[in-house]
Specification:
The structure holds 2 protein chains of 2 kinds. Chain A is an alpha/beta fold. Chain A has 18 helices and 8 strands. The longest helix of chain B has 17 residues. Classes of the chains: A alpha/beta, B alpha/beta. At the A-B interface, helix 2, helix 3, helix 8, helix 11 and helix 12 of A face helix 2, helix 3, helix 4, helix 5 and helix 8 of B.
């Protein structure tokens, strides 16, 4: 047993007050969960503390919350580990997660937001070394209904519905069940593991600045159908998500959702798969997402390192090469990016040469030929590469079971979608069913 | 003393639109007695974009870079969070599967190259990691001749060097997401805690979702200013592009005055080692570094 202080961001809609912090002292084994700590506080100190939970085993997805600023499930985070993390950040920065990350924290704390002590000053004495409170907040990017309970409907579920989250099959359904090769489903097993907890949505840094972004959970769900061999609307789905300015090209590739997801869904990886498929389908989007990708890939083939000026030009006006026919958006965006190019020129940060597309030098000697040879090699063989990372550190022998390109090395667990495939060892942390 | 020698991958951007990073790294390495063997034949890491297009292409291109580094018999150092993340992803995939490595080495062997897992304890570390884990903060402290006293520095990591933790060696080095704070303190500066330190600068989508991108950059710079920062410091030149070069544009998007200096990590280290702002290329920044120089009472 150990004593912990949990600092909860509270909000009661029925009161006229804004959100405030409240600290609770709890006593439990370090291997128990943050959710257990919250339930103890609710039980012993304040029954009005609102938290949504059900299974307590990382299956139902109800108890999404931010713990020390990190989005995840309360029931899947050990309170001892949460304490270590809180201590570490306090030691490094002199601030707790509440001061650093919450709209009611930091300066707001000093300028009036009250921090209350629960139940007649029942806060436990800090252990010998300076111990930081474990900071618990409701999920981000969604409205708060009460305390740690957020409104999943207005953001999460609305966005999920946005991607048509059901199968749109070819023609009439078969008389019996669909017959699908198990291998053809491996690619979507990861996205099928989603339990709709919203932790990825809570952590999403694009959504933080663009509330209209379709977001990680919904886009992972979209891939679940785009990658399904039974679905007949793949191209239409991809066209829709690529053309939406808040779709697949609005993801800023920050990896937050990957670390937040308690089930190894790796939503960002699914978004990258959507982009790859959109490219394979030849979808030219008005966001210049595919143009940017192709420009990047071609420049490295020709030059080995990045010609930045060329990348900007080619993203907006792909393949102009003398026949200047950029799209309206391309023209507009190019003009918008001019000040960004001119400023470093004025500061002599870069010479004129670097700002002119195409003047960038290729790699020395035969190095550029070597890079081209790699492109040819990858083009030539059409080995379908499974994108999951599998195998263990230092366990080469096991990997020999895979075929030449490592494609067969993914071993989906027999228990199916609930197990995570990505990120290897993480599976061992899963709570058994 | 240190006697560190590394195969050095400067990346594309440090030789492109942030040449002051390349220059300041060379200067700082000399003062720290870190010997840099530059991999001038190596190729772009793909920055996640080539992987988005074709994972195997990205894996092979980076295997080539690792193989070039291994040819020198040295471990590798980079100066870009994005290179770190993109290369770590490929290295993880390569290291997980000997059959896949063999497949990729097929094409490399035609170039007299091979990537070998764990050869001579091969690692690839950002300068930030190398500074803390191999060079050591104690030794760094001894080298400080101009402590950054009174300079309030906001760390800005860059996504690729902090997430996903499982890929970036956090199991072995759990403090990698607080190294910037440690370095700032070792140099005598004061850490400013603000909301954006481990968030995204927005750069990856600047051509695709400009508003989203610049709102991210502008918000973080604004938050750092509100928290009283004199400057930011970053180990990622792509973050620098959005936070510094795009700062005037970001200011328009978030509709407020900004004007916060953003230093590359080697520049901050260089200042503490007594280097002059000019030789560190600081006058080349878009956001003026004048306030930093004033704080430290050094002439630009």
């Amino acid at each position: 047993m150990a004593e912990y202080t949990i600092k909860v961001r509270r909000f009661q809609p029925e009161s006229s007050e804004g959100p405030y912090w409240e600290e609770f002292g709890v006593e439990l084994d370090p291997s128990l969960s943050v959710l257990d700590g919250l339930l103890q506080a609710k039980d012993r100190e304040d029954g009005s503390l609102a938290v949504r939970c059900s299974c307590r085993a990382a299956i139902c997805g109800s108890c999404g919350m931010k713990i020390n600023g990190q989005s995840g499930l309360g029931c899947k985070t050990q309170i001892g580990e949460a304490q270590e993390q809180a201590n570490k950040m306090l030691a490094a920065t002199g601030a707790t997660a509440a001061e650093a990350s919450s709209p009611v924290g930091g300066a707001a704390d000093e300028s009036g937001t009250e921090t209350r002590e629960a139940g007649g000053g029942a806060v436990v004495a800090a252990p010998a070394e300076r111990s930081a409170p474990i900071v618990i907040e409701p999920m981000g990017n969604m409205p708060v209904i009460k305390d740690l309970v957020t409104d999943m409907e207005s953001t999460h579920w609305t966005k999920i519905r946005r991607v048509t989250p059901w199968l749109l099959p070819h023609g009439e359904p078969p008389e019996r069940e669909y017959v699908v090769e198990p291998e053809s489903m491996i690619d979507i097993t990861q996205s099928m593991a989603c339990i709709q907890c919203g932790a990825c949505v809570s952590s999403c840094l694009s959504m933080e600045v663009d509330h209209d972004f379709i977001g990680p959970a919904a886009l992972a769900k979209a891939y679940r159908f785009v990658g399904d061999p039974r679905d007949a609307e793949t191209k239409e789905r991809l066209h829709d998500l690529a053309h939406d300015p808040h779709g697949i090209y609005d993801c800023t590739h920050c990896f937050s959702c990957i670390d937040a997801c308690p089930k190894g869904v790796a939503p960002m990886d699914q978004i990258m798969r959507l982009r790859r498929k959109a490219g394979e389908e030849g979808i030219e989007d008005p966001n210049a997402g595919h143009a940017h990708e192709m420009a990047f890939v071609k420049i490295i083939e020709k030059k080995g390192t990045l010609d930045e000026a060329m990348l900007v030009q080619e993203s907006y006006a792909p393949g102009i090469k003398g026949k200047l026919k950029p799209s309206k958006r391309g023209l507009r965006e190019t003009i918008k990016s001019l000040p960004t190019i001119l400023r470093p020129l004025r500061k002599r940060k870069v010479g004129l040469k670097k700002a002119i597309p195409g003047t960038h030098r290729k790699l020395p000697g035969d190095a550029q030929d070597d890079v081209k040879a790699i492109y040819r090699h990858v083009d030539e063989h059409s080995e379908e590469l499974n994108l999951y990372i599998r195998g263990e550190e230092g366990d080469d022998a096991q990997a020999d079971g895979g075929d030449a390109a490592g494609a067969g090395a993914a071993q989906p667990h027999a228990s199916g979608a609930d197990q995570t495939l990505g990120a290897g060892e993480e599976t061992t942390e899963e709570t058994p069913k | 003393m240190s006697n560190i020698k590394v195969a050095y991958w400067p990346g594309c951007v440090s030789r492109g639109f942030t040449p002051e990073l390349h220059g300041s790294m060379a200067l700082v390495a000399e003062r720290l007695d870190i010997e840099l063997v530059e991999l001038d034949r190596a190729n772009c890491c793909g920055a996640g974009v080539i992987a988005e297009h074709n994972q195997e292409l990205a894996d092979t291109l980076n295997a080539r870079t690792f193989a070039l580094a291994q040819q020198t018999g040295l471990s590798m150092m980079n100066i870009c969070s994005t290179c770190q993340g993109a290369q770590s992803e490929c290295q993880q995939r390569l290291d997980a599967d000997s059959a896949y490595r063999a497949h990729i080495n097929e094409v490399l062997s035609g170039q007299g190259l091979a990537y070998e897992k764990g050869k001579d304890g091969f690692t690839n570390k950002n300068f930030l990691w190398l500074l803390v884990e191999d060079y050591g903060l104690d030794q760094l402290r001894e080298k400080v001749v101009r402590p950054l006293s009174g300079l309030r520095v906001g760390p800005f990591y860059g996504c690729y060097i902090v997430r996903p933790k499982e890929r970036l060696g956090y199991a072995e080095h759990p403090d990698r997401d607080i190294y910037l704070e440690k370095v700032i303190e070792a140099l005598g500066g004061e850490v400013v805690e603000y909301d954006g330190a481990r968030k995204c600068c927005g750069f990856p989508v600047v051509t695709m979702a400009r508003e989203t991108s610049l709102r991210q950059a502008g918000t973080h710079v604004g938050d750092a200013i509100d928290a009283g920062a004199d400057c930011l410091v970053t180990p990622c030149p792509l973050c620098h592009l959005n936070l510094d070069m795009q700062q005037p544009e970001a200011a328009k998007v978030v509709n407020r005055d900004l004007g916060l200096a953003v230093l590359h990590l080697p520049q901050l280290v260089g200042l503490a080692l007594g280097a002059e702002p000019k030789e560190l290329g600081m006058p080349k920044h878009v956001a003026s570094t004048g306030w930093v120089e004033e704080r430290l009472s050094v002439a630009a």
